């Protein structure tokens, strides 16, 4: 989320047409097209954040700026030459970093939470304990993971949140 994504579509010699067909999981389809005989580009229902990265007559690569969850879905590039059509399919998965927090509950137990990440984050503690993380799925496809530290006789505990979008750790004394 928030970064740019580039989907490569290899140009072919004597390309007559290039088309990106985009079917996101949320919202309607959109397309970008280029016709060499008219040296013309066309776009249908695509947001401003989706565009050709370069001049499509030279390189039909697609760029998505400020990627959001709504961009997730199927992307297919079709390049047409005299010999036929060449398709390059992609499925764009959008990673959502969780919002990590570490706090003490009413009983004085450390609680580590990784809210609204996609996919679900992994929570671990520097010292072993017998906690089983609880996961809560949300309608937008994100997951909140919550883990409570249940070991005793320690003053400072450290929570580690691991996620494909980055890792986080913090210590607390309850």
TrEMBL record:
The keyword Transmembrane applies. It is a single-pass membrane protein. GO terms for molecular function: signaling receptor activity. One of its GO terms (biological process) is regulation of neuroinflammatory response. Belongs to the CD200R family. One of its GO terms (cellular component) is external side of plasma membrane. It is found in: Membrane. This is MOR1A protein. Residues 60-173 form the Ig-like domain. Coiled coil: none annotated. Transmembrane segments: none annotated. It comes from the Eukaryota. The keyword Glycoprotein applies. Keywords: Disulfide bond, Glycoprotein, Membrane, Transmembrane, Transmembrane helix.
């Amino acid at each position: 989320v928030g970064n740019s994504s580039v989907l490569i579509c290899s140009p072919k010699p004597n390309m007559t047409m290039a088309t990106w067909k985009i079917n996101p999981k949320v919202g309607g389809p959109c397309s970008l097209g280029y016709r060499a005989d008219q040296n013309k580009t066309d776009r249908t229902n695509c947001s401003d954040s989706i565009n050709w990265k370069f001049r499509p007559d030279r390189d039909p690569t697609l760029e998505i700026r400020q990627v959001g969850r709504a961009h997730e879905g199927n992307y297919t590039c079709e390049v047409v030459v005299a010999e036929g059509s060449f398709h390059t399919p992609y499925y764009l998965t959008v990673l959502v970093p969780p919002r990590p927090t570490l706090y003490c509950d009413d009983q004085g137990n450390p609680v580590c939470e990784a809210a609204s990440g996609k996919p679900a984050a992994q929570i671990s503690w520097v010292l072993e304990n017998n906690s089983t993380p609880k996961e809560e799925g949300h309608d937008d496809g994100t997951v909140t993971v919550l883990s409570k530290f249940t070991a005793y006789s320690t003053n400072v505990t450290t929570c580690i949140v691991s996620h494909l979008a980055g890792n986080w750790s913090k210590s607390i004394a309850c």
